[in-house]
Structure to design on (695 residues):
């Protein structure tokens, strides 16, 4: 029941927010939804309930990790939204709250679904609900971004649907199973390898498009930079992970069919192509929100590389990295929103002297930069190091070397932009913004919390998280 | 009954060829609608007329893909004044040739994959691949936003054809979910197409190039 409630609550509340007149009522529903989600998700994570819907809805270790990420980011984005929208100059949009809640509901369904068909339905629903959020500005640029996002992701996810069907075709005759994950995993050893291989490739390319793996990433920088900052944080921190989960599910099945090695190679290739592409576009990137978007492409590449290396430690590192990336990227997009409110531009060259103009924002932004580039003692340092050590221990020195070089390029490229923005003198003519009081507190509290969390995970690993990550990497062929 | 299945599948493939040369958007949309209706009929043929599941799937396919989506797309065509695809990236002759080539490729592909013979599996797989290829081709060679939406929908038709062979194995919920997603997708895309028209005064997506990486 609790899983059904968790999935249904955002949809019900979203519909309610749609029909309710009045901004105050919608706001209350929005906050309520964040609260309900946090309470229910905390209970589910603390003690995973049995599967529902005939096994199609369940909470395994993998799903729980991603459920935690989605819930945390959404709750913080809900708080952030109030401050951001109050200070934002654009007209208010009536559809914002319902679209956010439908977006949340479909992401929750995706992380909890243990049925490949249901997962597909959920992930396509995330595209549709978030497209309207990207079109928030009603500007030419946001329209173009929303169009690209819709068509590229829909086509990508259509290919994933084909992959899902191919997987069903791979089932041996007589195993009249469904697309239930448990049935697929049980039947995997008897699957026709030819079908299973093309199924995996279609799923990888399809969900990889949504995850932002290069060269299918072209929608991502546009969508992330044009969406309002709370939406960007959710897109980058929560949504990309949901798509990653789809690839992991396909990998799980390929793995139990004995095709683990076959599945790892394309993951490794796409991972490095993503890291390389991102590094190339990070260098002298003129738009700081696009900078963060390309950094997401880079980190999705790191996740793919981690799984592609294979073995317990690398998979463990990749999953930990997914969590760490979400924390740090949420922090960065939230503080980038504050920078945008202060300077009214997304250009790196238009922002300078952040440290003088708004010291607190500058601190958050700098912490975010240090965290995302894997500087110790933040969480990303730990997870990147884990993957690196696993690559060396597995006898892949070249992979480790390439990994390090690409990380260094990203560090340098992002560092140059951050230095330019944080230091120096503020430009003389900038429109003044009322950036103080309770609204500023609402904007600064969520990234502040994420900064602390990112630091905390670099220094200490809670026992429950450790056991979850271990159980999840066990599902993916770790030891 | 099996001969009916073959007739419908051949019709689906012929519609692929028609779609590749349709320059009028209304013909394109109607071609898609007829193809979707064929799929609905096929769902009944394959699963038996006594299956409630099949009736549900066929009914929803017909209502959403053969009636509702074409209706919205036609309305978008009228509102945006885009009757024809004037500037395809390849000529219609080339386009027809490519789809014909795609059909051959689809048959070659289908013959190489192990498919259950009993459910007219080979021809279904061939028609499905051919339709997927046609959809992808429409997506990459046309410049009107509406044609791209139709391309996506044709691609989805091809995939749905694959799904039909699995009809009994999939829970109704999932199939309805897929149909609903596609419907809402087409609906949202229609809205965006309309907004592109209103903002840019045309719906040529080849002109949507503001968001590019500038040389720093």
């Amino acid at each position: 029941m609790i899983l059904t409630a968790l999935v249904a609550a955002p949809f019900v509340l979203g519909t309610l927010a749609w029909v309710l007149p009045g901004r105050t009522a919608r706001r209350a529903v929005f906050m309520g939804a964040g609260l309900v989600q946090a309470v229910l998700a905390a209970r589910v994570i603390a003690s995973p309930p049995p599967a529902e819907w005939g096994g199609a809805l369940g909470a395994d270790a993998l799903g729980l990790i991603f459920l935690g990420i989605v819930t945390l980011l959404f709750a913080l984005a809900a708080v952030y939204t109030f401050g951001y929208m109050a200070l934002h100059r654009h007209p208010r949009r009536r559809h914002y709250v319902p679209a956010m809640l439908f977006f949340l509901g479909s992401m929750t369904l995706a992380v909890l679904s243990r049925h490949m068909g249901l997962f597909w339905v959920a992930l396509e629903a995330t595209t549709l609900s978030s497209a309207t959020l990207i079109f928030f500005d009603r500007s030419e640029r946001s329209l173009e971004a929303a169009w690209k996002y819709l068509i590229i992701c829909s086509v990508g996810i259509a290919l994933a649907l084909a992959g899902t069907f191919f997987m069903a075709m791979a089932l041996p005759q007589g195993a009249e199973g469904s697309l239930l994950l448990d049935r697929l995993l049980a039947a995997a050893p008897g699957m026709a390898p030819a079908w299973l291989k093309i199924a995996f490739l279609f799923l990888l390319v399809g969900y990889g498009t949504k995850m932002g793996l290069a060269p299918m990433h072209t929608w991502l920088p546009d969508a992330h930079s044009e969406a309002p900052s709370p939406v960007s944080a959710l897109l980058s921190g929560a949504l990309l992970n949901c798509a990653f989960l789809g690839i992991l599910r396909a990998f799980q099945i390929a793995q139990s069919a004995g095709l683990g090695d076959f599945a790892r190679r394309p993951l490794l290739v796409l991972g490095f192509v993503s890291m390389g592409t991102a590094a190339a576009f990070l260098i002298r990137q003129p738009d700081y929100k696009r900078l963060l978007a390309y950094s997401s492409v880079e980190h999705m590449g790191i996740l793919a590389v981690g799984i592609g290396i294979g073995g317990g430690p690398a998979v463990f590192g990749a999953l930990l990295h997914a969590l760490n990336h979400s924390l740090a990227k949420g922090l960065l997009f939230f503080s980038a929103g504050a920078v945008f409110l202060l300077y009214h531009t997304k250009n790196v060259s238009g922002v300078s002297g952040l440290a003088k103009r708004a010291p607190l924002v500058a601190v958050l932004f700098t912490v975010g930069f240090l965290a995302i580039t894997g500087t110790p003692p933040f969480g990303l340092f730990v997870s990147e190091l884990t993957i690196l050590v696993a690559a060396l221990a597995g006898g892949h020195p070249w992979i480790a070397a390439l990994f390090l070089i690409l990380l260094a390029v990203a560090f340098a490229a992002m560092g140059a932009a951050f230095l330019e923005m944080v230091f120096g003198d503020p430009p003389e003519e900038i429109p003044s913004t009322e950036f103080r009081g309770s609204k500023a507190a609402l904007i600064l509290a969520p990234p502040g919390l994420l900064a602390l969390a990112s630091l905390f995970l670099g220094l200490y690993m809670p026992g429950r998280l450790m056991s979850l990550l271990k159980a999840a990497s066990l599902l993916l062929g770790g030891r | 009954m099996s001969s009916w299945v073959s007739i419908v599948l051949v019709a689906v493939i012929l519609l692929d060829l028609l779609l590749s040369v349709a320059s009028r958007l209304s013909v394109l949309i109607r071609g898609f609608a007829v193809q979707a209706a064929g799929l609905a009929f096929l769902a009944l043929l394959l699963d038996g007329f006594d299956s409630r599941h099949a009736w549900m799937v066929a009914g929803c396919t017909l209502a959403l893909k053969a009636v509702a989506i074409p209706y919205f797309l036609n309305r978008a065509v009228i509102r945006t004044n885009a009757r024809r695809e004037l500037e395809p990236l390849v000529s219609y002759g080339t386009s027809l040739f490519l789809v014909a080539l795609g059909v051959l490729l689809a048959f070659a592909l289908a013959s190489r994959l192990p498919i259950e013979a009993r459910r007219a599996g080979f021809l279904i797989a061939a028609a499905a691949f051919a339709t997927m290829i046609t959809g992808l081709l429409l997506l990459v060679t046309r410049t009107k936003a509406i044609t791209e939406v139709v391309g996506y929908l044709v691609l989805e038709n091809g995939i749905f054809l694959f799904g039909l062979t699995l009809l009994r194995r999939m829970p109704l919920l999932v199939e309805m979910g897929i149909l609903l997603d596609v419907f809402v997708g087409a609906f949202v895309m229609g809205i965006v197409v309309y907004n592109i028209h209103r903002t840019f005064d045309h719906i040529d997506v080849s002109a949507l190039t503001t968001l590019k990486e500038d040389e720093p």
User: Anything to note?
Assistant: The two ends of chain A are 32 Å apart (CA to CA). Residues 312-343 of chain A form the longest helix (32 residues). Chain A has 19 helices and no strands. The mean pLDDT of chain A is 89.
